[in-house]
Design goal:
The chain contains eight helices and ten strands.
Length: 264
C-alpha cells in the first residue's frame, strides 16, 4: 500500500476514531517549592465526532487541560486516553488552534498551511492538493499567496484552523480560537467553524469564555470551577446542527448555563 493510500485508510472518517477518555486527572504546579493544584479529579468521556465546549472562570484550568490533552505537558496524575492509547507526547493525531493564529509572517498562506505536512511521506503534488483542499474548506481561495499581514484577523484564524486540520487529526483542540476577534467576525467564524466541523466530523474540544458560542457549537457544555479546576456541571445541548441562534430552546440553555456560572 502506498503512502497516500495508507494516509486515506488511517484517517477515514468511517472508522469513527477520536474517542477521548480522561480519568482521575489531576495536575499541580510547584510555586516556590509548594504544590499549587490546578486540576483536580477530572473525569470526562468524549465520543468520536462529538463537539464539546468547556467554559468557566479564568484560572479554572481550561487551557491547562487542553495542553495536557495535546501532549505539551506530561507531568500529571491520572490517564488521558485517545482510542484506548495513553497520551504521552504531542502527535499529529491531536491538532490545536490558539487564540492568536501563530502563522509565520515570512510565509504565504499556502506555505503556512503546507508546513504542517513537512514530515509526511507524501509527494509534493499530493501535499499541494491537500493544501488547496483545505484552503477551499475554510473559504480562502484567492489568498494562497497572501502573507499574514495582508489577511484580516478572521482570515488568519481560518488559516490556522486549516493548518490544524490538514493532518486529519482525530481530535481538534480549540483554545479561545475566536477570542481576539470583533463581535461580527466572531459570529461569522462561529458559523464557519460549525460548517467545517459538520463536514469533517472530527472530535472537537473548545475552550471559550463566550456562553452563546459554547451553546451554539457544542453538543455538550462542560462547566468548570476554579481553585483547583474541576468539573462542576454538564449541559447536553439537545439540538440538531446547524442551529438557529434565535431558538427559544437555546435561550433556555443559556439561562441554565448563566445560573451555573454566576449563581442565583
Amino acid at each position: 500500500m502506498n503512502a497516500i493510500a495508507q494516509h486515506a485508510v488511517l484517517h477515514s472518517p468511517s472508522l469513527q476514531t477520536g474517542a477521548l477518555e480522561i480519568r482521575d486527572l489531576s495536575k499541580a504546579y510547584r510555586i516556590e517549592g509548594q504544590p499549587l493544584p490546578v486540576l483536580q479529579q477530572i473525569n470526562l468521556s468524549v465520543r468520536p465526532g462529538e463537539f464539546v465546549s468547556i467554559v468557566g472562570a479564568s484560572g479554572c484550568g481550561k487551557s491547562t487541560l487542553l495542553r495536557l490533552i495535546v501532549g505539551l505537558e506530561a507531568d500529571y496524575e491520572g490517564d488521558i486516553l485517545l482510542d484506548g492509547k495513553r497520551v504521552v507526547a504531542t502527535s499529529l493525531e491531536r491538532g490545536i488552534v490558539f487564540q492568536d493564529h501563530r502563522l509565520f509572517p515570512w510565509m504565504t498562506l499556502s506555505k503556512n498551511i503546507g508546513l504542517a505536512l513537512k514530515n509526511h511521506p507524501l509527494s509534493q503534488a499530493e501535499k499541494d492538493r491537500l493544501v488547496a483542499e483545505h484552503i477551499a474548506l475554510v473559504n480562502l481561495e484567492g489568498f494562497e499567496n497572501a502573507y499574514p499581514h495582508q489577511l484580516s484577523g478572521g482570515m488568519a484564524q481560518r488559516a490556522a484552523i486549516a493548518r490544524a486540520l490538514i493532518n486529519k487529526p482525530k481530535v481538534l483542540l480549540l483554545d479561545e480560537p475566536l477570542g481576539a476577534l470583533d463581535a461580527l467576525t466572531r459570529v461569522r467564524l462561529q458559523h464557519e467553524l460549525q460548517r467545517i466541523w459538520v463536514q469533517q466530523r472530527c472530535t472537537v474540544i473548545m475552550v471559550t469564555h463566550d456562553i452563546e458560542e459554547a451553546l451554539y457549537l457544542g453538543d455538550r457544555v462542560i462547566v468548570m470551577d476554579a481553585h483547583p479546576g474541576r468539573i462542576k456541571h454538564e449541559i447536553v445541548v439537545d439540538l440538531p446542527h446547524p442551529r438557529d441562534r434565535a431558538s427559544t430552546v437555546l435561550q433556555g440553555y443559556k439561562e441554565q448555563l448563566l445560573e451555573e456560572l454566576v449563581g442565583h
